[in-house]
Amino acid sequence: MPRASLLFQDHHVIEQQTFRNNELLEALVEAGLVEKDAFANRINMPSDRVLAQGLGISPHNGGPIRDYNRGTALRLNALAASRDGLAALDGDPQAMERVAMRVHHL
Q: What angle is formed at CA 66 by the lines to CA 70 and CA 68, rounded to 5 degrees?
């Protein structure tokens, strides 16, 4: 009997490794403003290349996409270097909330 496969796989929008390697995300997680496994940080991606091509999106092969992760890191680094980002890293609660909103919009 053929092995059943899933059409879609659950994937983190902001990768798990990014959470481990980003000081700003770590501060937001510690403050309870961002959660790695939250529904808002999950997306279902097609596991089949033909289906993905038909939908015009990347397939999920189980691993992170290097260019996507680089782009995410660049956006997070720019956010951390902003006035609000620097204030958030210094513990300013209002800045942390504003930065968290921007992270949620990534």
A: 55
Q: Does the structure show a pLDDT above 60 at 37? A: yes
What pLDDT digit, counting tens, does each position of 55-78 carry?
A: 888 787 766 778 888 999 999 999
Q: State the pLDDT at residue 3.
A: 53
Residues 6+ away with beta carbon under 8 Å from 98: 84, 88
3-state DSSP of the chain: CCCCCCCEEEEECCCHHHHHHCHHHHHHHHCCCCCCCCHHHEEEEECCHHHHHHHCCCCCCCCCCHHHHHHHHHHHHHHHHCHHHHHHHCCCHHHHHHHHHHHHCC
Residue matched to tokens 């209002």? 94
Which residues, 6 or more positions from 76, have their beta carbon under 8 angstroms from its beta carbon? 18, 22, 24, 25, 103, 106
Q: What is the pTM of this model?
A: 0.79
